[in-house]
Design a protein that fits this description.
With about 400 residues, the chain is α+β, with helices and mostly antiparallel strands. Helix content is about 55%, strand content about 15%. The chain has helices spanning about 1-15, 20-25, 30-40, 170-175, 190-225, 230-245, 250-260, 275-305, 305-315, 320-330, 330-340, 345-350, 350-355, 360-370, 375-405, and strands at about 55, 60-65, 75-80, 85-90, 95, 105-120, 120-135, 145, 150-160, 185, 190. It is elongated and about 110 Å long.
């Protein structure tokens, strides 16, 4: 249920709240036909959740009291702003669509009119204002008049959706079940291929940072607990606060300038071999040490004042054994929580490190996708990150049962 909720929330964020995805991805200067093709490929020309009608970009809903719209393009159609109508002159032939409709698709014109003429081959005749609907299959969707005029107040076009359950949501779910993440307009490649190409560079950067940072921070936090209130403990606390106070970008710029550019110890940019990862991994570990040491130190010190620790000391157990056997084991629950929840972020990569060091991972891909409004790429990364977060929470609960005998897995 949580996964389904994540999928639904992702759909709502992009398809409902996100606005016109085609215009965001392609820009507003492209033709309506191009926008319609984008909608067709991604199922955006269907109802959102349920329904038998959907809009088409071939004709924008128009209440002529608000303006003439596309009707200004014809000399044989006279617009009256005062009456809020368009009058088609005798012997007029007008097709108001922006492009031709597919002959296999079915559409409905809904209009308010007065006078005589035809619409999509259907006769229209009324001396008073009348609302009607005209159903037709693609092809000719235009107006024609003979000796008389035809006045129009309102006009809108709808695509007929024969299956009410064939919606944007079901299209999106079917797409996910096929493993289809969409198509990147920026890179002109399937999104699934971009993710496969980017996940290895991301993991080659984030996994070393994660493992080295975890081992070093837990080790230093145990040192702090062992030398409680001694010089080394106070020094590590001050050191941690200093690291937390420095902006992440400072570490990156300083590392690139002093360690790579000035001294030439590391490459500045690229992803050609393992040595290109040394500097970003070093920066990632150092920048994260401050918060990690303080977090794990607090956990260790909380355990140090519990009854089982005092009992162990009273029995003559040495301080190193109490720390590394008893305290560390009982501190595993918060450690597991912090560690497992960080796993989804290994997949999504490090946005800043990958961008500054030219590592073609998912973080670098994400920034480019956001800057170029590549909707399918952004949506896929958001969805996969959310799903991994759900799986990680489940994995956390399972690890609780493995680490603490008091927790039963039922």
């Amino acid at each position: 249920p949580t996964v389904l909720g994540v999928i639904l929330l992702t759909f709502i964020l992009f398809n409902v709240v996100g606005g016109d995805l085609a215009a965001i991805a392609l820009g507003k200067k492209v033709s309506l036909q191009t926008l319609e093709n984008f909608d067709e490929q991604r199922g955006l020309n269907k109802p959102l959740f349920f329904g038998t009608r959907a809009k088409s970009r071939a004709y924008e809903d128009l209440d002529l009291s608000a303006g003439a719209g596309r009707w200004r393009n014809w000399s044989n159609a006279v617009y009256s702003a005062e009456a809020g109508t368009v009058t088609l002159q005798p012997n007029a032939s007008i097709n108001p669509l922006a492009f031709e409709l597919g002959a296999e698709d079915e559409f409905i014109w809904t209009l308010s009119f007065r006078g005589e003429g035809t619409l999509a081959g259907e006769p229209l005749s009324s001396t008073d204002w009348k609302s009607t609907k005209v159903r037709f299959n693609g092809g000719d969707a235009g107006f024609q008049t003979l000796e008389n005029t035809l006045e129009i107040q309102k006009l809108k076009l709808r695509r007929v959706n024969r299956n009410p359950f064939d919606s944007q949501l079901t299209f999106y779910i079917r797409q996910l079940l096929r493993g289809d993440m969409g198509y990147s307009e920026g890179f002109k490649q399937p999104v699934a291929k971009l993710l496969r190409d980017g996940v290895l560079p991301s993991l080659s950067l984030t996994i070393p940072i994660f493992i080295i940072g975890l081992v070093v921070s837990i080790s230093l936090s145990l040192v702090c607990a062992y030398f409680r209130d001694a010089f080394i403990d106070r020094f590590l606390v001050i050191f941690s606060v200093a690291l937390m106070s420095i902006n992440y970008l400072v570490f990156i710029v300083a590392g690139q300038y002093f360690l790579a550019y000035k001294n030439g110890w590391f490459p500045v940019w690229g992803y050609e071999s393992v040595k290109y990862l040394f500097l970003p991994v070093l920066i990632g570990v150092i920048s994260g040490l401050g918060s990690n040491i303080r977090f794990y130190r607090t956990i260790m010190l909380d355990e140090m004042y519990k009854d089982y620790v005092r009992t162990a000391f009273a029995k003559g157990v040495s301080k190193p054994r109490v720390l590394f056997v008893h305290v560390l084991k009982n501190a595993m629950i918060p450690i597991i929580t912090n560690v497992v929840i960080a796993i989804p972020f290994l997949y999504t990569g490090s946005l800043l490190l990958e961008s500054f060091f030219g590592i073609p991972g998912l973080g670098y891909l994400s920034i480019n996708a956001i800057l170029s409004a590549d909707i399918d790429v952004v949506r896929a990364i958001v969805l996969i990150g959310a799903l991994l977060f759900v799986v990680s929470n489940l994995l956390t609960d399972i690890c609780y049962a493995a680490a603490d005998p008091r927790v039963k897995l039922k």
